Amino acid sequence: MLTRVESGDVWGWGSNFSYCLGLGKSSPDRSFPVKIPSLKNISNLAIGITHAMSLSATGQVKTWGKNPLGLGYHCQNDQDVGVPNPVYGLRNIKIVQISASGDISNDQSAVSFALTATGQVYAWGTGDHVGIGATADVSTPYLINFSGRIIANIFSASLRGFALTEGGTLLSWGSTGLARTGKSKVPVDISEFKGTEVLNVFAAHDNVFVLSQ
What we know:
- The protein is globular.
- By secondary structure, the chain is mostly beta strands.
- It has a single domain (about 1-210), classed as Methylamine Dehydrogenase, Chain H, CATH 2.130.10.30.
- It has no helices and 17 strands.
- The strands form five sheets. It has a four-stranded antiparallel beta sheet with strand order 4-5-6-7, with no helix packed on it. It has a four-stranded antiparallel beta sheet with strand order 8-9-10-11, with no helix packed on it.
- Strand 13 and strand 14 form a beta hairpin.
- It starts with a strand and ends with a strand.
- Residues about 175-180 have low confidence and may be disordered.
């Protein structure tokens, strides 16, 4: 469990099995909240199955956890990372939103997404689910092609990605998509919402909820 408080500090407690507490690989499980010293001025958090992400108020992203695929940087000998580290491929890019997910039945799969201040989306993780048409795994940030559309929000759950454009169009890609979109390696419009302005989306594990106009 991770939580951000008003000051921008982050506290963690619970199991450290996936090193998501951010307190180091040798840290024991914690039955009470402990401040994570390497996270300051944090505006948002995103938690996958075996990795975690943080976003600072200045737009910088850090990741950590047991799955190197979700981290966004090359790990020596595919080592797990027990404390937050910067995603260097995004260091000169202002990020405004992050999202992460994985597969509860396969701890070797993970995806991460980062939305920029200009409405672009960077992604990395398990190849088929990243959204760039790849079959090979993607270990560092890579831009998703939305054909010039500006993205306002991103969401991820169970290796599925969702993007909401400024005009209210909802797209999906990854594991199973949504409704009749099926599995897709690149973003596709969700036909069920054609002609409908989508205002917001919430995705968690195998459930997706859409708020429309």
